[in-house]
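Hi all, long-time lurker, first post. I run a small reading group and we've been trying to get comfortable going from sequence to structure in the token notation. Rather than ask abstract questions, I figured I'd post a concrete chain and ask someone more experienced to write out its structure so we can walk through it together at our next meeting. Sequence below, copied exactly:
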Amino acid sequence: MNGRPSTNEAIFAATLRLIGEHGLHGATTRAIADEAGVNEVTLFRKFGSKAGLVRAAIEARFSSFEATSLTYTGDVEADLVRLVTGYRDFLEELGPVARSLLTELPFVEEVAAATTTLRGVIADMTALIGRYQDEGILQPEPTATLIPALFGPIVLPVITRDFAIIDQGDPSNFDPARHVARFLHGRAEPTR
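-- Answer (accepted) --
Happy to help. Here is the structure in token form:
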């Protein structure tokens, strides 16, 4: 192997970088093709449309997250630390595109179908947490409150990075193990 990324990897990287810089509407297929070093026709042959390209780029990134982060081992704390760490690393890898995807994707009709990939990942997260609930290790609680409680502190800084209402501090100081321990055991000081 020559160390160069495959054509699809180059296209996906260009797609996500340009969405991060210019948003979904501003990332044109012509600019993506130019950056990836391919002809614009190649994009349409491979992916059918801009929406298909965006979906494929997102799915490619999510597939690596799912493979490494969504594993049941029977150790709830270790599984949640791995999940939180993987999700944080995933959002950091996406960089500025994460905010564009989280805030624009549901409202841009031609690529909104790409949210099905995100919904699938959330369903897998929910299933992992649900399994621990079924086993009596986690208390029964609707996933509508559990998922935001677990991932909100990771997602909120991404969405509000340039206009944060509260000081979010240095993101490198986020400790997944401490976050999961607080999620599992609460924030109250132990009573004496």
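A couple of things your group might point at:
The mean pLDDT is 83.
The chain is about 70% helix and 0% strand.
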